[in-house]
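Progress report, Aim 2. The chain analyzed during this reporting quarter is listed below.
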Amino acid sequence: MKNCKKIFAIVLAVALVLALGITAYAATVTKTEGVEGPASITVTLPAIPEGYTANNTYKIYKVFDAQLAEGSDGISYTLTGSHTTPPDGFTVDDAGNVSYAGTSTDGSLTETDIAAIKAYVTEADLVATVETTIADSSFTVDNLPYGYYYITTTTGTVVTVDSTHPNAEVNDKNEIPPVDKKITGATSYDADGKKAIAEVGSVVEFEASIVKKNGAENYIFHDTMSTGLAYNNDVVVTVNGQPVSAGSATYTIGADVGDTFTVRFANEYIETLADETKIVFTYTATVTSDALQLDPANNTASLDFGDVNGENHTPPVVVEVYNAKISVYKTDDEDEPLANAEFVLKNSNDKYYSKDADGKIVWVDSIEDAEVHISDAEGNVPAFTGLANGTYTLVETKAPAGYNKGADVQFTINEHDYTAENLIKSATVINKEGPELPSTGGIGTTIFYVLGGLLVFAAAVVLIARRRASVNA
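Predicted C-alpha cells for the chain:
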C-alpha cells in the first residue's frame, strides 16, 4: 500500500506554472480564514526585464486533503469537505482514498488532467491569494494544511499542481514575451532601425515583432503613431514567413483608446504556435509634418499579456522620424535687411523644390515651376522645410531693385545625424548695389565731351593767330 502511495505521489508531482512578470516590493499574501497547518509553498518568480509592468495575482487552491505517513515519505489523499466526487481523471476507493486514473505515464499531468482540475476547483477551495510586483523574486505562503494544490497566475496559462509534503518549492514556468520594433524603409535610417530622416510626403516602412512564449495568453499588440505620421491601414501579420489572415480564429484588428491600431490574438490560435515562434507585423505610414527637426514623429509598439485587464505589458519600443529645413536671411553689404529677393531650392538631381496641395514635397524639372520664396521687410525668407538628407543649392532668381543677385549657396544635410546643427541649416545671402553702367557701352559719352572741348580750344587758337597776322600785315 505504501508503494502505491509513493507511485501516486510521483504521478501527481507536476510542473508548475506561475507568473511571468511578477511584481511588488513585497508580495501581499491573503490567507483564507480558517486555513492553518504545518506545510508551505514557495514560488520562485522569473526575472522581469527593466521597464516591464507585470503586477501578478497568484491564487492557490487545495484540490485534495493529504496525510503524511509517520516516519516515511508516504502520502495519501482524500476529498476536501467541499467536494463529494473527484475531478475527471481521478477516482475514490471505498476507503475514501483518491487515486490517479488518467492517461499520464511520465509523472506529469496531461493538459486534459489540468483542464479537469481547473473546472473542478471553486472559490470554496481557495486558501490564499498573493499579489506580487516587479520587485519580487519569490514568495512563500506558510501555515498551509498538507494537501494537493493547484496554483494559477494572471501572467500566463501555465499552472502548477503540486503536493506539500511537507513543503513545496516551485518555479514559475510562464515566460515574458519580448517586443521589438524598427524602421526598415525611409530616405535614410540607422542600422538598428530606431531613427530615420524622411521627406514630408514620403512613406516610411516599419516592422514590429513579438515572440510567443510558454504560457502565452491574451496577447494584445498596440501601435501608436504621433502627429507627423499617418498610418496607411496596411498592417500584415506574418508567422513563420507566411501571412496570416485576420479573423475570429486568429486575430482581430481594431483601435483601442490611444492606439493607432490594435491587434488582438485569439488564445486558441496562440496555443497552436510553438514556443519561440516569431510573429511579425509590417506596415507603413506617410510623413505629414515638415516640422520634425527638434520634435520627431514617434511610432511606439508594446504588448499586453496574461491578465485580461491589461495590467501586464511590455515597455514601449519607440522609433523616431525626423526631417530638415533650410532658412535664409537677406541683407545688403551693410547688414541691413532687404525685401523682395526671390529664391528657389535645387536638389542634387537638378530638380526644384515645390509642394502640392497636401503639403507633400514634389521635385519639378523646370525652375519656372519651382516654389518661390520671397524675403520680407525684415529680410526673412520662408524656410524650405520637410527635407530629407542630401545636398541642396539655394538659387537667388531675382534681386531687390538696385542690387545684384547673390551667389548660390550649397547645403548638405547628413544622414544618421539628428542634431539641430545638421537638421536646421541657415545662411545669410548678401546683395550689393549694382554699379552705374554706360548707356551705349565702351567708354560712353565722356570721350565725346573731351574731344569736343579740344576742338573748340583749337579753333579759338587758330582764330586768334589769324587776327594777329592780319594786324601785322
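The CA atoms of residues 27 and 292 lie 45 Å apart. The longest strand covers residues 56-68. These observations will guide the mutagenesis work planned for the next reporting period.
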